[in-house]
Amino acid sequence: MEKLSILMNSYNRHEIIGHALDSILGSDLPEGLELEVVVIDDHSDQETWNVLKKYSDDQRVMMHRNKENIGSGSLNWNKGYEIATGDIIMVTADDMIWDRSCIRYLYRELKKHDRYTCVVGIYINTESIDDLPEPTLKVKEWKVSISQLTGIPTIPTDGKNEHVTRNLSFCYRDFYEGLDELFHHFPVNGMREETDQYLRIMKLRPKRKIVVVDRAVRYHVHTKKGGYRMDLKRYKRWTRKNHRSYLIRNFGWKVVYMVPIFHIWLAQKWFRDLIGKYLIEPKKNNIK
User: Fold this and answer.
1) How far apart are CA 197 and CA 180, in angstroms?
2) CATH code for the domain of 79
C-alpha cells in the first residue's frame, strides 16, 4: 500500500476551503493508494480556522497552524513536506476544486514510469464551483523551453483557459532527491518558484521526465478574498524583484546581460497590453 500526501496551504479562504477539501477527500482513489491531506494554515482568521476544525476527526487530514502569518506559499509547502508521511507528494492550494478522477488518472500514469518521473495535471480557471467545464483526455511529455536571454519559461497550454499545473508535483519523493528545499522562497510569494525548482531538479538529474495528463483536472476558483493577493502596481514591482533574484540564483554571470534584456521585454509587453486595453478594445466596442 502506497500513500499520497497532498500539501495544501491556506490563508483566509473560509468560503472555498471546505469545498476544496471535500473535493479531495471525495476523490476516486485507485486500488493500492491511501490518502493524506496536510493543511498548513498561515494564521488565517477565525472563520477559516473554524471551517478547518470540522475536519479534525478525519484521520486522513493533518493540520498545522502557524503561530503568525509568514505570507509565503513556498515556506508553507516546505513545512508541509517535512510533516507529510506519504511516498508520493502533491501540492495544491485552498482555492482548487478537484475532479473526482484527478488522482486516479495521475496515479495510473505515474505507475507506467520510474520513480524519477513527475506526473502533472492541468488546472482550469472558473468563476464559480457551480459551472465547471468538462476536461479532455490527453497524455504528453512536458517540454519546457527556458529563454537564455530573459530566463522566462515557455510552457505548453491547450487553449486560453487550461494551464499546466504550476508546481512539479504528484511524484515519488525520489524525484526531489538531492534538493536542499522543496521550494526556494523568493522576496515575493508566488513568482518564479516553479521555474527555479524545475532548473534545480534538471541540474541534479537531467533525464528526469515530466508527463502531463490533461484529463487530471483541478478547477481554480477565483475568490474575492484570501490568498496572497496584491494590487497591480505592487505585483509588477515585485515581479521584477523576484525575477532578478531568480536569474542571479540560476544563471550566474549571465545576469549582466539577462537583467537588462528582461526589463526591455517587460516594458514592451506592458506597452503592448496598454495599447490593447486603451486603443484596440475601445475600437472593437464601437463596431455595430
Assistant:
1) 11
2) 3.90.550.10
